[in-house]
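Title: Prediction job returns without error message
Component: structure pipeline
Severity: low
Priority: P3
Assignee: unassigned

Description:
Job completed but the reporter wants confirmation the result is attached to the right record. Sequence as submitted:
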Amino acid sequence: MSTLEKTIKILELLSEQPRGLSVSEISRTLEFPKSSTHRILSTFSAHGYMAQNQDTKKYTLGLKLVQISSGILANLGIREIAEDYLEDLQEKSGEIVHLYVFRDGKIICISKVGNPRGLTLSSFVGWTTEPHPTGAGKVLMSDMSAESIRRIYQGRTLKKYGKKTITDLDALIQEVEKIRKQGYAIDDEEYYEGVRCVAAPICARAKIVASISCTGPLFRMTIKRINKE
């Protein structure tokens, strides 16, 4: 069997295993040599087509596949399940609602609903960014250990996006711990000036699998409104 055929088999196997598989599990299931399996996984992970969870060491499909394929997005289970809830939240809030997942150290938008007047955002389905300046990103990191968060930013600084972006790693970890306890996160002009966002987790089997966020201008997304609604 050629390397290309092996790669296709691995992709097909991982598409059926959303929780991921280790090198040994993939090798044993497909009866491929462990060395060639690892080589294929490493090559495709380097290009974003597969991803390895640093805690479990298991491999899943990479978000590069999501970014270049509208077909994958259309069939992404969590997106389909959440769509009605996103539209309901958008109708009730009148603001822009996003659905994000975490992969490869970044968050990716897999759904966006609404386009209120007076607010322009760079986000779109398939858009990726760093997690630290966003409410959704901080919510997704609240399911991680401090060590895992440090690995995300190992060897680099926390880029400043808005005037209130958290740029200190220790301060970020403290903020994430606070979010873990309160169950939601606020992006208070941390990504865009004049814009506030509130985000909450979507959980499955006691694990955060996605984050839903509601974003609007400061004059509408007041702290009083967030606490009330």
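Comment from assignee: result matches the submitted record. The mean pLDDT is 88.
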